[in-house]
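Researcher: Here's the sequence for the chain we discussed earlier.
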Amino acid sequence: MFFEGSEKKAEIMVDINKINLLTDIDNTFWSDLVTYCNAQVLTTIENQYCKAFVLSESSLFVWPERFLIITCGETSLVNSIEFFLSRHSKSVIEHLIYQRKNEYFANAQPSCFGDDIKIISKFVKGKAYRFGELDRHHNYIFHQQNNLSRENIKAYLCLDTLLSDFIIDDYLFQPYGYSLNAINGKDYLTIHITPQASSSYISFDIKH
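Model: Thanks. This is the structure I predict for it:
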């Protein structure tokens, strides 16, 4: 018996001033969300920062400002995304990323990436990309298009937590680009991101 291990992944960030996913939503909602993609919650652990669910088809993690769900097999993860988006105002959603790796037996899947994007695009505008060669391993990624702030980026990268001892100075370029310097005593870190589709580039340097 063959099991499709290639994963589908979705991450949605919300405005924590409007909703706290960890405290404002109970486990019944998350269980229903998982059911919509044809999976089940098996076990759960949690602390004051995060909830983690082991699923029959991978995992779900919930933080106050975002959640991440990963599924495999013949799941319909897009149905779980639709379930969440249809029950929350568009103004609550700050960012959405949907990723899907090419499957070994794509014809056994209930949908293809193009089908999924048609559903998601009913709720949010975004762009889709393919990374990798078409006849080899590759990933499809859809991300929501919106005007991210420096605060959004730092929250998404968890920089305030990872660099809690550092003084941070960052800049968001228009129409695209992000740079960050961080210092702590003699130590430093610098990140530069150029997200152009034709020539995207990230540099990272640290002395610690």
